[in-house]
Amino acid sequence: MARPLIGFILSLGKAVGPHRVEGDAVDVDGGQLSYESCGSGSQAIVLLHDGLIDASGFDEMWPILCKNFHVVRYDRRGYGKSPAAKGLYSQTDDLAAVIAAAKLERFALVGFSIGGSIALDYALDHPQSVDRLVLVGSGANGQTPSAAANRRENRNFLPILIGNVQGVAANWAKDPWYIRRGDDAAKAKALAIWQANPQNIRHLPTDPVRPGPPALPRLPGLQVPTLFLVGDHDFPDAQANAEAAHALIPNSRLAMVANSGHALQLERPREAADLIIDFVRAGH
């Protein structure tokens, strides 16, 4: 999705959670991606993290999903165990490299926030490989943010201009749309992640991502069954973007998750996992 001046450049990162285990790495053009997999069976899921919390944010969902599917998660460049990019790169090409390394042929893609935009772009380019698509708090690449969204992201990221990484983390932790007001447990998880890996903030101002084409014009042709999940306390732009993309994709549906902001993986991990399991199983 499109981002404002600071928000386009910046997002956040990663911590080693209690269920994190050693995984594998795949070499990509100009870098390396850390990934891990679990479970077995004929159904596979690839998890894509958002721009604020990397793959360790799935720690509570991970054992639930791993009991039911072969699951793969990875840290995008500059997040978690994956070093920052040294040259221009494509997010969808990186995803393709992880899929090839994990030896997956057909799978479901589950993307959170900007991870959902990457998953959607990949599904548009490779519909024969993606049997289900779950987009959490996400819309389509190319949607224009509102003025209010620009102000919010610029305000939250402002401390990075003087190198204050933890100031950025504190702003997002108290943002009532990212994590619902009153959910102190989810805020503590987020702060622990950001405290553990401040590099996830620092790399983003110079992250040389190659932008893809706008996805919206291509959505009516997408035949992959798609589920949109949105927190009822998420920022209005996130809700509106999901609704707009949902309206354009045939065979898609949208579900509002109660008592959650944007970070469903931290706020409602079991509920999110159950919704994903039900939707993916429905295709088999």
Q: What does this 3D model show about the protein?
A:
This protein is of the alpha/beta class and about 280 residues long. It has one domain (about 5-280): 3-Layer(aba) Sandwich (Rossmann fold), CATH 3.40.50.1820. The protein contains eleven helices and eight strands. An eight-stranded mixed beta sheet has the order 1-2-4-3-5-6-7-8, with helices on both faces. The longest helix is centred in the last third of the chain and has 13 residues, at about 185-195. The protein is globular and about 50 Å long.
Keywords:
alpha/beta, 284 residues, disordered N terminus, eight-stranded mixed beta sheet
The portion of residues forming beta strands comes to 15-25%
Task: Give the overall shape.
Answer: globular
**What is the share of helical residues?**
25-40%
Query: What is the mean predicted local confidence, pLDDT?
Result: 90
Overall tally of domains: 1
What is the CATH homologous superfamily assignment? Alpha/Beta hydrolase fold, catalytic domain
The CATH architecture comes to 3-Layer(aba) Sandwich
Compute the number of strand runs. Answer: 8
Task: Please give the radius of gyration in angstroms.
Answer: 17 Å
Report the structural category: alpha/beta
The fold-level CATH name is: Rossmann fold
